């Protein structure tokens, strides 16, 4: 049985995965700006760099207290012979720009 994350990553939509390894690059007073970073990237994708990969196995969502809500999949480079839909996976974010945009909004 496929999980929701498996379905999303294989649906052939234009998917951009932004993990906490990227959103944790944006910090304000000791707090990670996960949601603001994801929203700003959705509005302006040029704020990140990403690689285009495809999931090579099923995407698992963990349901335990320690890993609650976490996703894990092995992503591999796209090969010409692959019939898998690709997924954009964020690897870096322009943290100073994102932080500045958030601060501008907060100061308005």
UniProtKB/TrEMBL annotation:
Superkingdom as given in the UniProt entry: Eukaryota
One GO term under biological process is: purine nucleoside catabolic process
- Gene Ontology cellular-component terms listed: cytosol
GO terms of molecular function: purine nucleosidase activity
Q: Know the name of this protein?
A: Uncharacterized protein
Originating species: Gossypium barbadense
